[in-house]
Design a protein that fits this description.
Blueprint (H helix, E strand, L loop, with lengths): L7 E4 L3 H6 L7 E5 L5 E5 L5 E5 L1 E2 L5 E2 L2 E5 L4 H16 L4 H10 L3 H16 L2 H19 L9 H10 L5 H19 L27 H16 L5 H13 L3 H5 L6 E2 L4 E4 L7 E4 L2 H9 L22 H11 L8 H12 L4 H8 L15 H20 L11 H12 L1
Length: 417
């Protein structure tokens, strides 16, 4: 078969034809007779390149190359061209997708942008630190060398399988990766709707619910008092634990308390920041009694740290001493919030009230009560505080009302029998 070297001509592109084609002084093109848009370009040096012509959804003409002959056979090139043309009819731009793929950074490179442009400006310091840990320990070792565009659902499933033994952390790692993939779409590094973390089922998480029985509450109060009397742990830690018990505040919120934000007249603490943003913490009488006994430190922190001008950092070691002295096992500082919430539930406080007192971001129903007046919250906080105070001041042999949900359910079952 002889093909005359004209700039543009039509013929069925086959292996026999390509073998017979001779180069000319200038490039020339052979358009396939059967598949519109599919063609091959022959250069003066004899290079034969398969291409496909189509228009993007916005009308922009596209002419991407598919491969060269040889090693790509014409039948394979035709199939590839057919797929590209079909995708274009449905709005998928092959050339744009390839451009995005070539410009895509590796996941390790993208992680730096994620931290700089999203995490640090928009997330709290603790969350940023967590993300940095997830990236360093889990995500980068598994996927760091892959380009953002090349990460597939199979890659995500393989990562999840490796994380099966780390429990809740696995879900946090996948949440971090999923957010990164969403941002990759937003920043035009991946096609829309291509997040490979979608439909990957997270591991089941078992909610931690550790409360204190009345006897344990008495032992805890005694241990705190003994440690304070013997000066075995810093006074700032003692104050921290008592504030945690009577307010239900998070650990970070207590560490950030400053005297200038204390409003004793309205019986509130104005938090400049918290997990859910700025908020007011309603104070009951036992909490106010604790605050009134605290000596004002020049630094302005309610719970000052050992470093000059800095707040208390992590009271984990003093807490360990307290729990050992009280004989408490598997009870951490955050569980003090559970005690506060458990007592509130035992006193039949409504969920909106409990959510408002503890700073929960409860959706839908609770959101209706977001602007409720402080008066019912003061009443609720006072009731909880007095119940907690009564429990801590009771004698081991005395009858103590157990206000935890478990105890209330047990009492109901006893009456039913």
């Amino acid at each position: 078969m002889e093909i005359k070297a004209r700039y543009s001509q039509k013929a069925r592109i086959t292996k026999r034809l390509l073998d017979a084609v001779k180069p000319a002084e200038k490039d020339f093109v052979i358009w396939d007779e059967d598949l519109t848009g599919f063609h091959v370009k022959v250069t003066p040096k004899g290079r034969k390149t398969f291409l496909v012509f189509y228009r993007a959804a916005n009308g922009t003409p596209r002419r991407p190359s598919i491969g060269t002959y040889p090693p790509m056979p014409p039948d394979e090139a035709r199939r590839e061209a057919s797929a590209i043309l079909l995708a274009a009819q449905h709005g998928t731009d092959y050339s744009e997708a390839k451009r995005i793929e070539r410009a895509a950074p590796t996941l390790s490179e993208f992680a730096e942008r994620y931290l700089a442009d999203y995490a640090r400006p928009h997330k709290k310091a603790r969350s940023v630190k967590d993300d940095e840990g997830y990236l360093k320990r889990y995500i980068k070792p598994a996927l760091g060398k892959k380009r953002v565009t090349d990460i597939t659902r199979a890659d995500v499933l393989n990562l999840q399988k490796k994380l099966e033994g780390v429990g809740v952390t696995a879900n946090r790692v996948l949440a971090c990766l999923s957010k990164m993939m969403n941002l990759a779409e937003l920043w035009d590094l991946r096609p829309d709707g291509s997040n490979p973390c979608r439909h990957v089922k997270r591991f089941r998480e078992k909610a931690r619910r550790r409360y204190l029985s009345p006897e344990e509450m008495i032992k805890l109060a005694k241990a705190i008092n003994d440690q304070e009397e013997k000066k075995l742990i810093p006074q700032a830690s003692i104050d921290f634990f008592r504030i945690a018990l009577f307010t239900g505040m998070r650990s970070g919120e207590i560490r950030g308390l400053r005297w200038e934000d204390y409003d004793p007249i309205n019986r509130v603490f104005h938090l400049r920041d918290s997990k859910t943003g700025p908020k007011d913490v309603i104070l009951n009488e036992p909490a106010i009694e604790v605050l009134d006994r605290i000596e004002r430190h020049p630094s302005g922190w309610v719970c000052p740290g050992r470093r000059r001008g800095q707040p208390l950092t992590n009271p984990a070691k003093p807490w360990e001493k307290i729990c050992n002295a009280a004989g408490l096992k598997d009870f951490n500082i955050h569980d003090m919030r559970h005690v506060f919430g458990g007592v509130a539930a035992g006193l039949d406080m409504g969920l909106p009230v409990i959510g408002a007192l503890m700073g929960h971001t409860v959706p839908q129903t609770t959101a209706r009560y977001a602007n409720m007046q402080n008066d019912p919250l003061h009443v609720a906080a006072e009731a909880i505080g007095q119940a907690l105070k009564a429990m801590t001041e009771a004698k081991p042999s005395a009858e103590v009302i157990d206000a935890t949900p478990a105890a209330r359910d047990s009492e109901a079952e006893g009456k039913a029998e």
